[in-house]
Design a protein that fits this description.
Two copies of one chain form a homodimer.
Chain A lengths: L19 H7 L4 H7 L3 H36 L5 H29 L4 E4 L6 H26 L8 H23 L2 E3 L3 H32 L29 H32 L21 H26 L2 H35 L10 H30 L4 H29 L4 H11 L2 H14 L4 H6 L2 H6 L12 H33 L4 H4 L2 H5 L2 H32 L1
Antiparallel strand pairs in A: 1-2
Chain lengths: ~575, ~575
């Protein structure tokens, strides 16, 4: 019987009376009762799940808090003996995780029953593709780091070289592991697997934290223009930077190069964390794989949305190139001009997006589609990740708003900055509502069958009974997922079809509008993803944030918030694509 | 039909055939199917729930992030114009929340159907009692603040006085509101109620954040002994402290007095947040109130546990008084001695607690009691709060461990500090496991019935049917909580009892041991609660933390972590009492 999270326990051993099928379907709701009935297996399973959840949570809490203490120690401490300690801690974590992942891969390939089901929603192609892309960038970063540290080997700790080597192996193993196993719903050795996955999650979060800290410190070492940053953190050489010189000439170039690759490594850790978390949630889950409609992607239905979206994308990329080129030059006068162009571009994009999202929400109010009911853990997770990731962008926007308003918001540049931030907040709220509403609707093409079936509930009921009795051999399946029987009716040819034509036309009009809006939002989100991912940092180029807050504070906010913002935009594109398909 | 979180939608309008009762019970598991069936009301409800959850989450995210930005601005900003802005923001929030709470109280007192059910697990007496106690302390603090700021009125912003006045009204209304309505499961106006409760939660978290910040800054103004703190934040007078003098003589005393009351105000906000969150989770929930066993609290069964616990408590309070008296004197030599006594006392307590917890977990492994199954939102919430609150203590411990290990851990004092921290981490992990395992077990006295009922499933089944048909009038109740029918059997006199006597004796031995352990742990947790709650701050008296991390960082860690630690100990005492009763 299915319990609250889609996990399925074995059916209770009921006597096989003629009434048994009936009772089988009924059992799902009598969870509490049936646990009294079922002698040991179900209880043992439940106990095991509770215990391993608890154990893996405790492991995560301990690893993460110890890690936070070490990171804080390495940043705020005057003696700076902790950078090495932190790296040793990370090396141990990474080696443990790599060993577990290898063990898991070998174990599941040998045991037939280890993975019975795959969750088709988990590890979608954009996530795995992004993982591979960012993984490659991270590998290049590690190679650069190794080459760089070889130059310091004569006067610096060897741990500095060991870490990137170990990390490179880890990235290779993890990318392979997640590519292959992201969809697994593990059935055997669930306690070990839960702990292993939580270890993977903790390791990735620790690597993320260490990378974010190093990135922030790196930006603090290069002082901002007003030069009021007196801190000069150096986390490379414990004995002091000046006493240790690089023995080969490529050091400066390498160092610059690998700092450009840091953001990709940060994204890699976030992606891997998200996938490990989904796998952890899926341990022990039995998925019913009946819920796949073959939804076709046809672009010819829509025209206006993609067209306007493409115009926005091209214009945005144009301004982005100008921005990058002119900011690199470092001329303050030009910098203000390109910042203004950038802000105007963003204002236009975000305004259009908000307007079209409002239109989309209005169409939702008009249309009569049913909401998808029943708990779907992957969907709840998707929604959680969407809202969670949007917090990064929210944070940057609100910090900017406070800084601009508090300093008086004088001049066009500040006014535009304020406008962009306010509009982005509104756009984020609206887009979250739109996507979540869209994900919770039944796909359109089911709608008509449903309306017609509903007119005669007796037919439905009779059919449900017939379906149950006719299902050949799949007895347990019938019991475990009661939704199946009702659901299968939607595609049953005997269901009377033929809804009146006018209604059909009205549906088509709404569907088309929703598809247009989704296509437009997708392209705009791609634009808003590309700009920060490839290096637009108006938050630092406009000095108001760094002047208002202390620079370290501002660097921390932006460096933590932006990667989440990038993740949010990618996630939005994927979710909007799903909404596009189901509309 | 009951869905995944205990929320109950109205039954679908099924045709009233002779089979209808059967279908009614069955409907719970056919949630997906029945939603296709049910025409509008169920769907509308579900849609409404999704929408209001989303809306209230978005409100919370926006209020909190804007608040964080304002707090950060007021701390890290050189110009310091934001303290007033922050207070205006808080005043607006507090007024809105107060208005909503008054509206809610009036509305629910007029409408009969607004609150149909009360969740008996929500708002337990320790939580409400703590709320009133801390509320009174917060009121006194506000009175002191008002008296103090009156002295500065001639040269400072009037907002400074408005804030404590508004806050005092808010505390009065909120304490009344939570005392009366903490158990409510609201049925009418659920959208407004969800948003209102989330607003209450946000307001309390914002007040908590502002209080923690002010407390940290206050400690930063008084420089630590080594005198290396160059920052001197002043958030009282925007125009500079020195230019504004108090016009009456009581200012210095008042100021000192209300800073002693800050920790109580911080706890108050935490308590109110927890209760608002529980109420938010309970909106729209229909609770089946059959699950109340009259468990008696009898102390005469246990002896060793309470005795040893009392000895520990008395000894601990003795050392605590010595500690407080000697630390107040400020003599560095004496300070080390009392710190050592304090650490030794803590080491002994934590070690004994760990050992007895291990023994308790071993007994759990031996005993065969069933696990409580079925989702209980209040219990999951309890577990979540327990683990969440323990993170505060974990953080302080790990930060201490890193600081002591990194500086070499020389001397008895550092070794003891390290030992206490390590043992506390172990104790927290063990205690969490013990409490959560205990909360998930069925009460002992049910065990025997269950075992006997299980031997004959046919009896159970027949009886279940009989029970359903016999229930007089409460048709919907039967449908809505299918567990009821099976559960009622446990107390049905017809169930054959009489488990063999030897087993009964073995149970009694285990029960007694568990009760002893719970009683001992309760008293020790009370000790570990009293010491920090009444002002023991070894984290600041031992300067290693403040020296290793920068002082602001260390103050932030301790000031955020300790209130959670205090909350954790109180929560543990309450949970252990529950485990004591069910054992």
């Amino acid at each position: 019987m299915a319990d609250e999270e889609g996990y399925i326990s074995p059916p209770p051993t009921l006597p096989s009376t003629p009434c048994s099928i009936h009772l089988g379907v009924q059992a799902g709701s009598m969870r509490r009762g049936s646990d009294v009935l079922s002698t040991s297996r179900g209880t043992v399973r439940e106990r095991g799940r509770n215990r391993s959840w608890l154990l893996s949570s405790i492991i995560t809490v301990n690893v993460l808090i110890l890690g936070i203490a070490l990171v804080s120690g390495s940043v705020f401490n005057n003696v700076k003996i902790n950078a090495i300690n932190l790296q040793i801690f990370l090396i141990v974590l990474v080696i443990l995780t790599t060993a577990w992942m290898l063990y898991y891969t070998i174990y599941t390939s040998r045991e037939d029953h280890a993975v019975l089901y795959k969750d088709s929603h988990a590890g979608p192609v954009w996530l795995r593709g992004g993982l591979v892309l960012f993984g490659i960038c991270s590998l290049i970063m590690d190679v650069f780091k190794i080459a760089n540290y070889i130059g310091y080997l004569h006067c610096d700790s060897a741990v500095k070289i060991v870490f990137p080597v170990v990390q490179a192996v880890f990235i290779l193993v993890q990318t392979y592991f997640l590519w292959l196993h992201a969809k697994d719903c593990v059935q055997l050795q669930r306690n070990i697997t839960r702990c292993g996955l939580m270890l993977t999650l903790s390791t990735n979060l620790m690597l993320w934290m260490a990378a974010v800290t190093e990135e922030s410190l790196h930006q603090t070492v290069v002082p901002p223009e007003d030069g009021n940053s007196t801190h000069s953190y150096d986390i490379r050489a414990p004995g002091g930077y000046s006493s240790c010189n690089c023995s080969h000439s490529a050091c400066a170039v390498l160092e610059k190069a690998y700092y450009y690759l840091y953001p990709f490594n940060i994204e890699y850790s976030l992606f891997a964390s998200a996938m490990a978390y989904v796998m952890w949630k899926n341990v022990g889950r039995l998925v019913d794989e009946h819920n796949h409609h073959s939804l076709h992607f046809r672009l010819k239905d829509v025209l206006v949305g993609p067209a306007v979206g493409l115009v926005m994308l091209v214009a945005g990329l144009g301004t982005f190139v100008i921005y990058k080129v002119d900011v690199e030059k470092g001329d303050p006068g030009k910098r203000d001009t390109v910042l203004m162009i950038h802000y105007v571009m963003n204002t236009v994009a975000v305004t259009l997006m908000s307007v079209s999202t409002v239109a989309g929400c209005a169409i939702y109010r008009l249309d009569q589609r049913d909401h998808v009911s029943g708990k779907n853990p992957t969907r709840s997770l998707d929604v959680g990740l969407l809202i969670g990731a949007s917090i990064g962008q929210f944070t940057i926007c609100y910090f900017t708003i406070v800084a601009v308003v508090a300093t008086g918001a004088e001049g066009h540049l500040n006014a535009l900055n304020l406008a962009v931030s306010l509009l982005t907040v509104i756009q984020l709220c609206l887009q979250n509502i739109f996507i979540i509403e869209g994900l919770h609707r039944e796909p359109f093409h089911e709608d008509m069958h449903q309306a017609s079936v509903f007119t005669n509930p007796y037919v439905l009921q009779a059919q449900a009974h017939r379906d149950i009795h006719n299902l050949p051999g799949t007895f347990m399946e019938t019991k475990s997922s009661p939704a199946l029987t009702v659901h299968s009716m939607h595609v049953a040819p005997s269901a009377p079809s033929g809804s009146p034509l006018p209604q059909r036309h009205r549906l088509t009009w709404k569907r088309r509008a929703l598809k247009e809006i989704c296509a437009f939002l997708m392209l705009c989100n791609i634009l808003l993803w590309i700009m920060p991912a490839f290096g637009a940092r108006p938050q630092f180029d406009n000095t108001i944030g760094a002047e208002f807050y202390e620079f370290t504070m501002w660097a921390a906010v932006v460096n933590i918030g932006l990667p989440f913002g990038i993740f949010y935009r990618m996630h939005s594109v994927a979710s909007l694509f799903e909404v596009f398909l189901t509309s």
